[in-house]
């Protein structure tokens, strides 16, 4: 059975490290547009596509089997997935019966209600006050938005009054170190990064181990640990990230306190495969869904919910752009409003 519960840690020896703190210049003010309107704008392609089909379907007339069948087709082609589509239809039929709905015009509100009911269990905010430092490990396939999300999270937690330290645990990609340092500079936070000498090989587990110890010494509230992107089929890299997690627990027994899997909304149904593989390897405790701006695949949120009706994963944050303010905790009502108008 699938589980989003936190794992028991296996001990492992921390490696030697060449980690160094990198200190911060000034941060720049960012212009802010309301997140709800960004989300709405971001989901406009999904909304237009889905909305147009739904409004012609819900334009009045009898609620019959033919209508349910058409609705099924529309939902399936919006990346909502088979499981979620069937759950939504079942819920809709119940509402139609219970409330004695007779006209298809009444179905839009009923569908919204079903969708909110389905997505609500995903909205489980992250409580970072249970440990100090609260260690968050970020994982996911290549290019999904891990490092960018760390930058945004650093800003988010700081606005909540928490101090943050970043660990540049992606020692694989040459530019990754600089990318994280740049996010650290924008947020005015310390980054623990490997030696910049390209001749020196550095170990991601060791960097993060050092970062956790450094955060303990400095009394920092939250450690955000970046990791290199990896495909779920690269088994040696999946083993490597398991080791990273084990080594973190050597620096602090309960850590990491949160394992966040980052998913790109554009991947559609493949996101489900990624959730399964990373959860098998790491016991994922939360998800971030990025790039909801400019995607026609916003329905993947429902697909995730539909996949685990008994044990819904925690969708902690959603990302709607590349700016510092473009990440927020997931809110089912806000999301459905943006998706369906
Ligand atoms: N439009 C948009 N772009 C995003 C979002 N999040 C990340 N990106 C972009 O996606 C690209 C990849 O982001 P990264 O943060 O480098 O992704 P990563 O997962 O760290 O990549 P690797 O470390 O190479 O695996 C960058 O160009 C980001 O600006 C988002 O919510 N919306
Ligand atoms: Mg990265």
Automatic annotation (TrEMBL):
<keyword id="KW-0472">Membrane</keyword>
<keyword id="KW-0378">Hydrolase</keyword>
<dbReference type="InterPro" id="IPR003593">
    <property type="entry name" value="AAA+_ATPase"/>
</dbReference>
<feature type="region of interest" description="Disordered">
    <location>
        <begin position="1"/>
        <end position="34"/>
    </location>
</feature>
<keyword id="KW-0342">GTP-binding</keyword>
<feature type="binding site">
    <location>
        <begin position="226"/>
        <end position="230"/>
    </location>
    <ligand>
        <name>GTP</name>
    </ligand>
</feature>
<dbReference type="GO" id="GO:0005047">
    <property type="term" value="F:signal recognition particle binding"/>
</dbReference>
<dbReference type="GO" id="GO:0003924">
    <property type="term" value="F:GTPase activity"/>
</dbReference>
<protein>
    <recommendedName>
        <fullName>Signal recognition particle receptor FtsY</fullName>
        <ecNumber>3.6.5.4</ecNumber>
    </recommendedName>
</protein>
<comment type="similarity">
    <text>Belongs to the GTP-binding SRP family. FtsY subfamily.</text>
</comment>
<dbReference type="Pfam" id="PF02881">
    <property type="entry name" value="SRP54_N"/>
</dbReference>
<dbReference type="InterPro" id="IPR027417">
    <property type="entry name" value="P-loop_NTPase"/>
</dbReference>
<keyword id="KW-0963">Cytoplasm</keyword>
<dbReference type="GO" id="GO:0005737">
    <property type="term" value="C:cytoplasm"/>
</dbReference>
<dbReference type="InterPro" id="IPR042101">
    <property type="entry name" value="SRP54_N_sf"/>
</dbReference>
<feature type="domain" description="Signal recognition particle SRP54 helical bundle">
    <location>
        <begin position="39"/>
        <end position="119"/>
    </location>
</feature>
<feature type="binding site">
    <location>
        <begin position="140"/>
        <end position="147"/>
    </location>
    <ligand>
        <name>GTP</name>
    </ligand>
</feature>
<feature type="domain" description="AAA+ ATPase">
    <location>
        <begin position="132"/>
        <end position="289"/>
    </location>
</feature>
<dbReference type="GO" id="GO:0005525">
    <property type="term" value="F:GTP binding"/>
</dbReference>
<feature type="domain" description="SRP54-type proteins GTP-binding">
    <location>
        <begin position="133"/>
        <end position="341"/>
    </location>
</feature>
<dbReference type="InterPro" id="IPR000897">
    <property type="entry name" value="SRP54_GTPase_dom"/>
</dbReference>
<dbReference type="Pfam" id="PF00448">
    <property type="entry name" value="SRP54"/>
</dbReference>
<keyword id="KW-1003">Cell membrane</keyword>
<comment type="subunit">
    <text>Part of the signal recognition particle protein translocation system, which is composed of SRP and FtsY. SRP is a ribonucleoprotein composed of Ffh and a 4.5S RNA molecule.</text>
</comment>
<dbReference type="InterPro" id="IPR004390">
    <property type="entry name" value="SR_rcpt_FtsY"/>
</dbReference>
<feature type="binding site">
    <location>
        <begin position="290"/>
        <end position="293"/>
    </location>
    <ligand>
        <name>GTP</name>
    </ligand>
</feature>
<comment type="function">
    <text>Involved in targeting and insertion of nascent membrane proteins into the cytoplasmic membrane. Acts as a receptor for the complex formed by the signal recognition particle (SRP) and the ribosome-nascent chain (RNC). Interaction with SRP-RNC leads to the transfer of the RNC complex to the Sec translocase for insertion into the membrane, the hydrolysis of GTP by both Ffh and FtsY, and the dissociation of the SRP-FtsY complex into the individual components.</text>
</comment>
<keyword id="KW-0547">Nucleotide-binding</keyword>
<dbReference type="InterPro" id="IPR013822">
    <property type="entry name" value="Signal_recog_particl_SRP54_hlx"/>
</dbReference>
<keyword id="KW-0675">Receptor</keyword>
<dbReference type="InterPro" id="IPR036225">
    <property type="entry name" value="SRP/SRP_N"/>
</dbReference>
<dbReference type="GO" id="GO:0006614">
    <property type="term" value="P:SRP-dependent cotranslational protein targeting to membrane"/>
</dbReference>
<dbReference type="GO" id="GO:0005886">
    <property type="term" value="C:plasma membrane"/>
</dbReference>
């Amino acid at each position: 059975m699938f589980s989003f519960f936190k794992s028991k840690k296996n001990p492992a020896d921390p490696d030697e490290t060449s980690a160094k703190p990198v200190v911060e210049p000034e941060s720049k003010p960012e212009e802010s547009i309301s997140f709800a309107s960004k989300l709405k704008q971001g989901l406009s392609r999904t909304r237009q596509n889905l909305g147009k089909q739904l409004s012609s379907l819900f334009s009045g007339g009898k609620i019959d089997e033919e209508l349910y069948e058409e609705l099924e087709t529309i939902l399936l082609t919006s990346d909502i997935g088979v499981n979620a589509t069937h759950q939504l239809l079942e819920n809709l039929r119940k509402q139609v019966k219970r409330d004695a709905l007779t006209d298809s015009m009444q179905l839009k509100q009923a569908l919204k209600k079903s969708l909110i009911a389905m997505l609500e269990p995903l909205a489980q905010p992250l409580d970072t006050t249970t440990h100090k430092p609260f260690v968050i490990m970020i994982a996911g396939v290549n290019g999904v938005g891990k490092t960018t999300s760390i930058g945004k999270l650093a800003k988010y937690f700081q606005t909540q009054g928490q101090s943050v330290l970043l660990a540049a645990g992606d020692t694989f990609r040459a530019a990754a170190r600089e990318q994280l340092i740049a996010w650290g500079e924008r947020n005015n936070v310390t980054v623990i990064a490997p030696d910049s000498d390209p001749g020196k090989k550095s170990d991601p587990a060791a960097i993060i181990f050092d970062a956790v110890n450094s955060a303990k010494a400095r009394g920092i509230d939250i450690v955000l640990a970046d990791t290199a992107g990896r495909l779920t089929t690269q088994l040696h890299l999946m083993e490597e990230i398991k080791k990273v997690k084990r080594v973190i627990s050597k620096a602090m027994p309960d850590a990491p306190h949160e394992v966040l899997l980052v998913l790109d909304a554009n991947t559609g149904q493949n996101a489900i495969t990624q959730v399964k593989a990373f959860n098998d390897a790491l016991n994922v405790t939360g998800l971030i869904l990025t790039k909801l701006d400019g995607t026609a695949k916003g329905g993947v949120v429902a697909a995730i919910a539909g996949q685990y009706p008994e044990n819904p994963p925690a969708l902690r944050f959603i990302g709607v752009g590349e700016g510092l303010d473009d990440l927020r905790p997931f809110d089912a009502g806000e999301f459905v409003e943006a998706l369906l108008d």
